[in-house]
Amino acid sequence: MNIKLSVPREVVDKWFKYLEQHPASAVAVSSLWLLIIGWIAFGWNLGNVGLIDETEPLFAEASRQMLVTGDWITPFFNGETRFDKPALIYWCQAIAYAIMGVNEWSARIPSALAAMTVIALAFYTVQWYFTKQDELAQVTNLPRRYLTAAMAAGLMALNPEMIVWGRIGVSDMLLTGCIGSALLCFFLGYAQNPAPIVIANWRLPNKWYLACYVLIAGAILTKGPVGIVLPGLIMIAFALYVGKFWELWREMRPILGLGIVLILSVPWYALVIWRNGWNFINAFFGYHNIERFTEVVNGHSAPWFFYFLVVLLGFAPYSVYIPVSLARVKFWQRSHWLKQQRSQHLGLFACFWFLGIFGFFTIAVTKLPSYVLPLMPAAAILVALLWSDLLPSSQTFSLTVNKFLRISAWVNVGFLTILAIALFNLTEIVRPDPAAPELYAQMANSGVLKFGGMIWLLSTIILAIVILTHHYRQIMIINLVGFIAFMAIALIPAVTIMDQQRQLPLRQLSAIILESKQPNEELIMVGFKKPTVTFYTQRKINYISSSRKALAYIQKQTLQTNRSQSLLMIIEEKKFPELNLQPDNYKNLASKGAYHLIRIPLKTAKQQSFNLS
């Protein structure tokens, strides 16, 4: 069986010859590819899904309050200071609100733009790397140059981890954009080693190093010390390995660079500490930085192998090629790398980037899937470089790597088979969601799970045929096309269903609250915390953790002389018996999904006998 799956070589050569003769067309085609994959991954349907509880609305509402109050120093949520993250994400969202209005699109556009920026810079870096490789070999291989850059960008954009965090309004993708772009700028400054910038007899680092420092400052303003610790560790380890630490010290002028970083990042920290003192220091530096690394915070503990699973699923379906991509670099052969030109160190640098972040957060005690998001660009570069070895070139492909590639390809087949089986049986594997009891039934009825499983099953069959016919060059393309089909036919519709089942009821109740809320009437939420209601009502909500505390609070309110005549409560139906509420003690204003909006007249509540035992 011999299946023709590739475009004739002469057609490819003719096309790229045209691009070589028309550089503007090459830029246009490259930009078009980046816009297409960027829109598919991060722009398509971005604002058509409501904010997702519980983290996203915390950022979105804090940014809205920043815009409304004009306080650009101290973030607030629901009337309380929010010191979880520094100010950059809030500034970006608030600026987006000012330009495009307060909505889901504006809350998420900073994440989408950050993702697209690091992807575009990675495309340029990979393309430049192969340009230099061609110059050293005295050949011109435009297909390899542009196709590998396009593949790196595609793999970087179209994977679950990047898509999830690039489509929600939190700080993780902004951090990845800053750290990833900073590391790419460092490599370009290291590899290109352009002439330093001289201003009034002051010798500055080259433009790429300066950009690296600015981006590190942005990372610090996005998540704090980790913004300089992570890229700093990676750059130092890499410089020591290639034996160029002192050369880079002289080129980068790190003391001056540190000054640039501090000038850009410290003013906000100084102002927020000046305003809030030890409250900020203890909450941000103590709890959200030191304790997250040394202790389990908010119950986010996991076994040591947690990030192996996160990367396997988060970079699916290409993650099965990460081991062979790392082996391809042969980072243990230091003598080999010491002989190489700086411009040819991209694979080695991506290896340090990937392993540095993976190792750092594996050591950290608190573990979350988003923590390893900054290594995804490195993973994409590594796998794209592996794929480039299969493209026509003057260099031969290593037999050892070829053997491991064949093994990885069959692992890929098994992995896609497991994904297909899991989707076919997802309703039996996953526990029901109490907040959306009909969610998985709706997904099953819609057919998205079946369609998703069929896409991966079809991809599995095609992939097996490709392997058996030795068309290894098509492997990554099949995975990429399969993922795009899965996203379009299954993932986006599934997210829409999830929004309708989990978040739409809360938005509907929020609209009813705005219509029916009486002057000075307090709104409380009992037994759970859904910050989306705060965002959509633009009202302060009293979140009460338990029915017992809610009863005590209601009883206390009945004794207040300057109180409202009633209060509004959002509650789940199962909580009614715990509150000892009889039908004549409240008015049910609306029931949406698992939630009820009720009004409790405080005069009636005062006469009610509470059982707080």
Helix proportion of residues, in percent? Answer: 55-70%
Which class of secondary structure composition applies to the elements? alpha/beta
The order of strands across the largest sheet is 6-5-7-9-8
Low-confidence stretches: 1-5, 396-401
From the N-terminal CA to the C-terminal CA, the straight-line distance is: 77 Å
Evaluate the radius of gyration: 27 Å
Principal-axes shape call: globular
What is the number of beta strands?
9
Short description:
With about 625 residues, the chain is α/β, with parallel strands linked by helices.
How are the secondary structure elements laid out?
Elements: H1 9-21, H2 23-43, H3 56-69, E1 76-77, E2 80-81, H4 88-100, H5 104-137, H6 142-157, H7 160-166, H8 172-192, E3 197-199, E4 202-204, H9 207-223, H10 226-241, H11 245-252, H12 254-276, H13 278-294, H14 306-314, H15 322-329, H16 334-338, H17 346-363, H18 376-388, H19 399-424, H20 426-429, H21 439-446, H22 448-468, H23 475-516, E5 522-526, H24 532-537, E6 542-544, H25 547-558, E7 566-572, H26 576-579, E8 587-592, E9 595-601, H27 602-607
Parallel strand pairs: 5-6, 5-7
Antiparallel strand pairs: 1-2, 3-4, 7-9, 8-9
Could you explain the architecture of this structure?
- There is one protein chain.
- The protein is of the alpha/beta class and 613 residues long.
- The protein folds into three domains: 9-386, no CATH class; 398-507, no CATH class; 517-601.
- The chain is built from 27 helices and nine strands.
- The chain has helices at residues 9-21, 23-43, 56-69, 88-100, 104-137, 142-157, 160-166, 172-192, 207-223, 226-241, 245-252, 254-276, 278-294, 306-314, 322-329, 334-338, 346-363, 376-388, 399-424, 426-429, 439-446, 448-468, 475-516, 532-537, 547-558, 576-579, 602-607; strands at residues 76-77, 80-81, 197-199, 202-204, 522-526, 542-544, 566-572, 587-592, 595-601.
- Strands 6-5-7-9-8 form a five-stranded mixed beta sheet.
- A hairpin with a 2-residue loop joins β1 and β2 (80-81).
- α2 (23-43) runs antiparallel to α5 and α17 (346-363) runs antiparallel to α18.
- Residues 1-5 and 396-401 have low confidence and may be disordered.
- This is Glycosyltransferase.
- Keywords: Cell membrane, Glycosyltransferase, Membrane, Transferase, Transmembrane, Transmembrane helix.
- It is found in: Cell membrane.
- It is a multi-pass membrane protein.
- Residues 55-274 form the ArnT-like N-terminal domain.
